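Holo model, prephenic acid. Inputs:
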Amino acid sequence: MAIYSRASLNSPSQLRSPTPISLTAQSPTSFHRTIRLQRKDPRFSIRVSIEDDNNCVDDNKHSSLAELASRDSRTHPRPLSTSDLSKSIRDRSRLRVAYQGVSGAYSESAAQKAYPDCEAVPCEQFDVAFQAVEQWVVDRAVLPIENSLGGSIHRNYDLLLRHRLHIVGEVKFAVRHCLLANHGVQVEDLKRVLSHPQALAQCELTLTKLGVVREAVDDTAGAAQYVSLHKLKDTGAVASLGAAKIYDMNVLAKDIQDDSDNITRFLILAREPIIPGTDRPFKTSIVFSLEEGPGVLFKALAVFAMRNINLTKIESRPRRWQPLRQAVDSNNGSLKYFDYLFYVDFEASMADPNSQNALKHLKEFATFLRVLGSYPMDTD
Ligand SMILES: O=C(O)C(=O)C[C@]1(C(=O)O)C=C[C@@H](O)C=C1
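Output:
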């Protein structure tokens, strides 16, 4: 049984697309298959063929997959993929906010918490959400950056640096996971459970007790959608109560996360920065790199401590393009070090001269420094 990326089966506009779409299935077993959605008649029919690695086409699968694809496409918007980004969006009446996943994902709820009247736009991957903002397809992106149980979402730290968007806000969202299965399926029937890797990590204790095989997919709601569409009897999903309703699934257990206080912090990204204020609590996010040497990170952090600026987060990531730095050591000759980027959040606005002085000071010995955004704190 292969786990397909969401887009393989839920695509209204893929089905209308003039070009055939080819998606590689991610298979947990030795099967590795490619799904091709091909348009036979532009208006009325699609042809779905499944090929295995030996290019054997299994025609018997056509009708059922086509049926599934069209049934789902009528009800839920398809996540944007990179190829959609060139198409213009006409309805500009509501703020459009990109999130990663499909309808029912926690990220969609976070987008709606940040902008209650927005049009939440699903995207296949984090990268697509970044590009959708950059290319004016949407106005904002709301993306997870850290979770109180699972830790940092490193991919988004890396993408913040690779793209040129600005952090204009943050939103904290209480994530309450449910164990979902198709109607009639009991907990004892479950052999495996699908979900987003963060969600699986957040439910470690429950899933270990159940003794099920865990399989990672792109998002929690996508897991529910997959199990529901395929009418699986031995597979469950960890997802939200909202996803249970959308994909008509039974809730076998609620609040299965390891700790009831399971909070994910999301960043709100935009093309333009906001003008920082001092009228309410602000946070500033920066990224910098430093020379190699004893006490350099200590010195960097001291620029905040000596000004009584509170740090709320520090994350280090290896530099992707020059991950190793060559340095000369008087005792050992030439040495190679890992080169890091440090992401720091501090509780102050860039409108505050204290923050400006701290960054001026940091620049004296940082080899690179970028302000990612200065934005109101979510104090909920
Ligand atoms: O899969 C989802 O529903 C998401 O919104 C993604 C995501 C994440 O990336 O951390 C968001 C919140 C939860 O922490 C689990 C998963």
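The domain at 178-253 is CATH 3.40.190.10 (D-Maltodextrin-Binding Protein; domain 2). The pocket of prephenic acid is lined by residues 101, 105-107, 144, 147, 153, 175, 196, 198-199, 219-221, 264 (CB under 6 Å).
Archived with the compound record.
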